Structures are given as structure tokens and as C-alpha cells.
Records
---
Amino acid sequence: MGRPTGLPFSLPVGGKLSQLTPRMATILIHRDGKTSRAGAVDPAWIEEGAGVTVWVDVGAPSAEDGLLLRDVFGFHELSVEDALSEIHHPKVETYDGYLYVILHGIDFKASEHEFATHDADFFVGPNYLVTVTDGTSRSIPETRETCERNPRVMAEGPAALAHRIIDTMVDHYRPEVDKLEERIDELETVVFESGETRATSQEILDLKRDVASLRRIILPQRDVLGRLARREFPQITEDLAYRFRDVHDHVVRLADDAMLYHDRLAAILEAHLSNVSNRLNEVMKFLTIFSVIFLPMTVLTGLYGMNVPLFHFPGGEHVQFFWILGIMAGMSALLIGLFRRSRWF
């Protein structure tokens, strides 16, 4: 059998796959108490009893990388298809010989008012872990550096390594959520304490959209981690179940925070609209008082501005203007006195 065009692996005589080197993958192996990088995947490593723990991280997977998942590791076609797709709903499924988990990393884009997600797919086998991401995950490089510094990390096994990556992913949620909470606190101070109306409804609605995006990410992952914490799968030992329970608790708190933020923003929006309404009422009251004060003056000046004979006040022609001016001032003073007595201002 010849070598398939464009694929970075070789096939020996007899058609059996010996090694495969994915183009965008990092391969770590742990054996004899040491962790090191490898340039290719040897199928003998993933056999039970091989004494080797393998972690293959595939970033920005291509169709060629799908051959690694199907032909070397023997993953089911449906799980491989999910791993190669860009965005998929968080879930956990068990297949013959391995556990398949999809979770999302987080990246808050304030300019776009949304929490962007990054798929992280985990294939957890008896002595191997395969992770598939879009190449932008922060948790994968951090965990990889930890593994290379500390050989005991991979010595704990693939499931424990998957937990460490997931725990790091969830830890990255908190700083992003804290930034969102700070923005809500600032907006709450403006609306409630200062009573100003400079906060726009659009700002509040943008924050509500951010919170809705956060809830859309958190809630499905809470359910997935809950299943891992309940030891529903043979790959999760009792010790790992306790670890996943701790991660699940963090996600539950994040979900509770998201619900709280939603309620706070609803209250902020209601208070803001109330402030705007009160401000509008104040403006309308001022304009009404202003109009009522000047309405009699307008009528009086309109009457005396017509070319018809009207009543003349004592003193002759030269004092008529001052009579009208005095009457206007008296009417204004009377109306202002009535308004102040009624506590209109």
C-alpha cells in the first residue's frame, strides 16, 4: 500500500499504521517517571499495559488530523465529527474504551458585548488523553508547561490530567466574571446613589446581553461537570469525583452569580427608567409653570397691541406702559406665590 497524498505519516508493508505526526499537535508522553515531547504517535503507546501515558493536543484541527483520531486511536466517527466541528454544545458521552467530553473555554470581548467560547474536546482513555481545540485556549499551554516542569502531573493518569485542564479553564472564568461585576457595580452606583440619568438604557441593555451570554455558557457546563462529579463513568475514580465536585461547585457559584447579575440589572433598568421619568416630570413641571406665568402677560400685551380703543389707566398716555408693566409684574408675583404655596417648586 502506498503513502496517501499529503498525509504526514507512513504506512509500512501490510497496511498497518505505525506512526502519525499531526501538523498542529503537541505530543507529551510519560514513561519511566519522566515526561517528554514526542514527534509522532506510536500506536503501541496506547495499548493497555504499555506503561506509557500519552497526551496529544490537536490545535486548529484539519481533516488530516481526523485520521489520527480515527485510525490511530480508533475513535467513533460521530465523536470525531463533533471534535472537528467549530462549535458544539457541551456534553459528556461514553464510548467503547473511552470517555468523550465537550466543554467551553471563555474569552470576554467587551467591544462586542459577548462572552466568546472556545470548544475543548476531551477523549479520555485508559492511558491516553487527546484534546482538540481551536488553538486559542489558554488552559492547554499552561497545563502543558506544568506537565513538562512536574512529571508527577501526567503520572496521575489521563483522567486526572483532563481534570487539571478543566479546572484551569473554570479558573479563567472568574476574572472575566469579576470584570463584568465591576461594570455592574459602577452602573449601579450611578443609577441608585447619584440618581443621575447619564447612564443610558443602551448601556444597561448591553450588560444584560453580556449576562445572558454568560448564562448561555455556564448552565450547560454545570450539567456536564455534575455528571462527572457523580461518578457516572468508569474513567472517573472516587478521588477524581471529589476533584470534579469542587470544579462543579465553582461553576454552580458562577451560575448563581449570573442569575444575581440578571436580577440586579433588571432592578437597575427599572430604577433608571424611573429616574428618567422623574426627570421628565420635573422638566414638564418647569415648562408648565413658565407657560402659566407668561400666559396672562401674553393675553394682556395682545389686547393692548390691537388697534382698537381700550380702557386707559390714569396719568395720561406716557404712563400707560408702566401701568401694564406693573400689572404684568403683579400677576407674575401672584402666580409665583400660589405655586410656592402649593409646593410646586
---
Amino acid sequence: MRVQRRAPIFAAPGPMCSRGRERGSVMTMKLYSWDLSPYSARVRMQIYAKGLTDIAIEQPPTYGTPKFYKDHPIGRIPLLEIDGEAIPESAVIAEYLEEIYPEPSLLGATSRENAHIRTLARIGDIYLMNNTFMLAVQTRVLAAQTPVTTGNEGIVALLGGQLASNTKALDRMIGRDGFACLGRVTLADCALVPALFFLENVLPGTGLADPIAANANVAAYWAAIQKDEYAARILVELHRGLEERRELIRSGAIEKIRAARDAAREAAEQT
């Protein structure tokens, strides 16, 4: 069945690149991404696992400028650009790609399997990554050479406790065969791999213990999934992005970038 084109529903005009199909309609598609962005990594792993070669992956050319924040009100990546329009939010992008590229599927064969996949993905996305990012903000672990917790130790302890509890919950739900569930790569793995990377590589910088080692099933999963070719590719990119970030911190350039970004966002909001 051929889908009739509708009027644009997403803003953000931009360059067109690769070609995809939405039930017969030819589209140009591009994913705007950064190596270190765990939410972008989630979508990139999905693209690699599905063998999609017609989606270009690039850094957003206008990021950090008023135009970016004017065109994309949420102001975050990843963004999937389609014919000059942009879809935000990694979970939304992931579901969209499953709809237009149903094979190979990273979902299950039944509604209950899909519910389990989405639950595990949500644990990675919300219960782990969100708390890790809030910890990074509180301690400036991704912004300063020496993390600082003075004055907010209570918040740091609270977030650390939530991460420990959430990892323990994941330990009871994670697969025992090297994958999150179903014995193969699913959208759950795409969300959990970057989340666990941040737990292992960023959390220790906040002064808190990595909760992976304290949970045997999560630890076993983490050791096994890193050998998967798609996860391994994502981890190379995440490590590269982390080293680039640390170099920006060492050089002091990160503060200039942050100041310019904040000024650009404020300028966009005033127009």
C-alpha cells in the first residue's frame, strides 16, 4: 500500500543525503549523532544490527548555534532527518526505524515479548542513563578535570543509591545467554549497551562504585554482549568520544563550548 505524503509535521530543514523507503515512498535520511551520546549510540547500534546502509550518520552541522535551537526546540541529539524534517528522541527514532525497516526485526514475535524488550530498554534509557547524567551534572565529571561534590553530597548519594537499586532490578530481568532477551540482539541491547558503558566508565569518576560488579547476571551479560559485533562497534565509538571529551576538558575548551551553546540557546529562545 502506498502512503500518501502529508504536510510536514517536523521542523528543521536541512541537507538531504541517503535514500530509504517508507512503504514505497523514496526518502532521504540522515542521523545526526555524536560518538559519546548514549542516546545516539542506541540508534546507531540499531542501524548497524539491521544492516542499514542508506542512512548517513553525521554530526549536526548547526549544533551550538541559534539556528539549531530554533529549528530543533528540544535541542538534543540524536535527530533523524527525513526529507529535511527531523524526528527527535532516540526511543521515537528506534520505533520509527522498526516500522519502516521491519526486517531484520529487533523486536519480538509477540506483544508480550515486545513489552519485555521495551521494559528493558526503558531501564537502560530512564533508570540508568538518566540518573547517570544527573550525577554527571552534579559532580561535573564530564566537564571538569576534578569532579566536585561539595554541597550536593546528599543528591549524589541519592542518585547513586537509585542506580544501585535499578541495576539490581535489571539483574533479575536480564537474559542469561549473553543477550538482554530472546537470545539475539534487540532494541533492549541497543539501549543497555551505552547505559552500561556509562556506568562502567563515567560513574567511578563521581566517587561512587560501579554497580555492575555487584550484580552477577548484569556482569555476565555485560562481559558477553561486548563480544557482539554491533555492540563492539558502538563501544569503540563511545570510547573514542569519551577520550575526545576528556581532551576538551584538559585543554579547557569545554567551557568555551558550553558557554557558546548556552548563549545560542538563549538567543534562539528570544527570537
---
Amino acid sequence: MRADDRNGVAMASQDGFSNGRDSSAAMQAAAGAGGAARSAAAKPASGQRVEKPIKKAGGPVEDKLHAWPFLVRSEFICALAVVVLLTIWSLTINAPLEEPANPTRTPNPSKAPWYFLGLQEMLVFFDPWYAGVVLPSFIIVGLMLIPYLDINPKGNGYYTWKERKFELMTFFLGFHVLWVSFIIIGTFFRGPGWNWFWPGQVWDPHMVEALTNVDLPYLFGFRDYTASAIFGLALVGLYFVVGYVGFYLWVRARPANDPWSAFPGGGKELLERWGPVRFGITGFLFLAMLGVFIKMTLRHAFNIKYIMVTPWIDI
């Protein structure tokens, strides 16, 4: 190659490099100008108010809501309503205060405080050791185990009835139907001698109500103490076996996407996620609670005193 040709190629290379460098610098400058323009457009002017839409409750797509104002506002309104109700109640109804305690005179009936009237009422239907120790222990332990037994993911952070029917109905049966009803019965329906008095009926302290309460084994002809204990124990065991089987079949029969099953796969998926331990504990607590209602019915309808009679505990 000649010298003038080599000089021409070198000059062309230098021109191309300088042109590319100039074009790159121009592109960077343009990009910087565009970014500055977007930043300027995004930033509000001095004194200008920026409004953002607030997500409102009730839509089907919201996953989370702020505690303020949605939850705190509702709780505050409910608290005000309760305060107004209690104030009106305290102004219109006198407190049921009696005369000072007299150690020489025992009141009839001698009632426990209202929050213990449920336990006192259960003494009518069960052995004192069972009603005063075993059943309250079941209540306390059951309440402590709820976070570990309840695996239903529905209703976490919001209120729902359709997706938590079993949980809500179980609580309603145990608290309202049994515990609150015991308190109401002990307060308004139990009079002197812990006899039953209907509203408006005079509380006669001399009334004696003749009740012929018998044990269930006695009705079936058992007179031997050991045979009666074995028969009663067999009945209690049969009750739990039938209850467990029925509970298992009911859960397993839940179809897919059933609101009672809490999972898309239905009862089979619920049993798989639940596991045998949690299922067993839940079934035992539920059947023990249901047994209280059954024992009350037997006592009121058939004057059944105890189902199982042993030297240690009577049920």
C-alpha cells in the first residue's frame, strides 16, 4: 500500500471514531434531558397537594386494609354504644345488693357469683369432682389449643360466617347454648333449695320437690356395683366410638369447594392437613361438650342421675 493510501485510511478511521464518540455523547445528553424532564413532571410544584386514591373496604380484590380508619373507627363506635348502654342500665336499674353478711344466717339459695353460676348449675347434672375439676379443665385446655387445632385459613383478618360455619357454630354451642344458659338458669330459675322456679312463681323456701333420680345401669337391671361400673364405662366408650366415626364420616363427605371443609379439596384435603392428632383432640373436645348437653337432656326428661358410676368418678 502506498503512503498516501495509508494516510487516507488513518484519517477516515479518526473521523469515524470522532463521529461515533460525538453521537454517543449526544445520545447520553438526550437521555439525561428526558430523565430530567420526567423527574420534573413527576415532582409536584411547590405548594401543590398530591392526592392518592384510598382503597375502600368491600371490594372483592382487597387483600389488606389499614387498621386506621377502618377497624379503629368501628371499634370506637361500638365502645361508645356499650358505654351508653351500661350508663343507661346503671341509672335505671338498682344493683342487687343485699344486707351485710350474717354468719349466723345462711341465705337460701346460697348462690355463687354470676360468673361461677355455670359451675354451680353443672353440679346438678354431674359428680362434683367431674363438674368442678374435669369439665373446667377441658374448657381451659380447649381454649389454649384453639390456635393449634384451627387450621382454617379463612377469616384471618376479616369477619366471615360462610367460610367458618363449623368454628362459629361450635363456639356458639359451647359458650351461648351451654355456658350462658347455665348462668341464666342459675340466676333467674333457681330458688330456695336450688329448686326450679318459673318466672313469676313465688319462691317458697318450704317447697320440697320429690325427684326420683336413678342411675342408668339401674334401669337396665344392674344391681351389682362392679357390673354397673362396667356397663356405664362401656356406654361412655361406645358414645365416643360412634361419635368419632360419625365425625370422621361427616368431615370426609364434604365435597370440593365446600365452605364447611375450608379447603378446595373438600373433606379429604382437610383430614390430610389436619392429621390424626389434631383430629382426635378436636373430636374429643367436641364430643365432651356435646355430652354435657345430652346428660342435661337425660336428667330433665328421664331423671337419669348418672350414666357411669365408679368409686372414683360418676358421669
